Fold this protein.
Amino acid sequence: MRSFSAFNPEQCAELVGRKTSAADDAAQSPAVEHLLLDDKKLYAVSELGDPEVWDLGVLYLSRCELLQQVWSKVPSVWEGGRSVVRAPAAIGECVPLVTAASSRPGP
């Protein structure tokens, strides 16, 4: 578990992946007072006490684990300019464990 305190707005923006300036942050929201990274989640609290939580678990997945999650939630492929419900093809060493039929809701 790592704890961060009193980061400036630019450092916090780098951690959450957005570009900002100090003037933008001052105009839009209060400063981040505390940051905590624990169990693949980033917790932040503003100087007003407003909490935010970001689940970063997807950033810890391997390439194949991430593809399996996408394939299980999006049972289609892009073909001929449109989405077609069909099992995806393997990508490199990553072989889909789901099929288009098993991803559909049952009767």
